[in-house]
Amino acid sequence: MKKSIAELRRELLNLILFLLITLFCAHLNFEFFGINDTSPEYFVSFIAVILTINLYRLDLIKVFLLGLIADILVFNLLGSYALIFVVIYGCHYLAHRIMSINSNQQQLILLLCLIQVGFNFSYVIFFYHGDFNFNFLAYLINNFLTIALGIISFYVLRYIKR
């Protein structure tokens, strides 16, 4: 079924709005329980939600370019988010090749798995480059916040898509 131009514009506007909210949240740093290192991986949950809902037809090049844009906007190590996004895309592609994911519950489980893969992969990348000291409590808080943000985004975008 082809989409009308108005529907495509509305979806693009929703994507841009979601990206701007994600960018705004990425520059905030909340201190939870007095720990300075608590900032969830907003872009990981962003790309996982977009892939899980199938809101747009994303291929490998678009995902990689979104990762480079995220790296530039967050002033991060160039290519780190691009690599994380490609790994998330590969896991999403593999999951859809192996399983048939149809219901909302199955999509939510896939979303949680994709967020966990991306979150752990981001910690491996930043740990490999020696950019931070590992704090387990901050890791758990960031993991919980990233998953909570992904679930909220999943249901909000699912509601908007209807």
Summarize the structure.
The chain has 162 residues and is mostly helical. The chain has helices spanning 5-26, 42-53, 60-74, 80-98, 104-128, 136-161.
Describe what this molecule looks like in 3D:
This protein has 162 residues and is mainly α. It has six helices and no strands. Helix 4 packs antiparallel against helix 5. It is globular.
Write out key terms for the chains shown.
162 residues; mainly alpha; 6 helices; globular
The string of secondary-structure elements, in order, is: HHHHHH
Number of beta strands: 0
Percent of sequence in beta strands:
under 5%
State Rg: 16 Å
Distance between the termini: 15 Å
Percentage of helical residues? Answer: over 70%
The structural class is mainly alpha
Q: What is the helix tally?
A: 6
Task: Give the overall average pLDDT.
Answer: 78
Task: Give the low-confidence spans.
Answer: none
Apparent shape? globular
For the report, how would you describe the main beta sheet? none
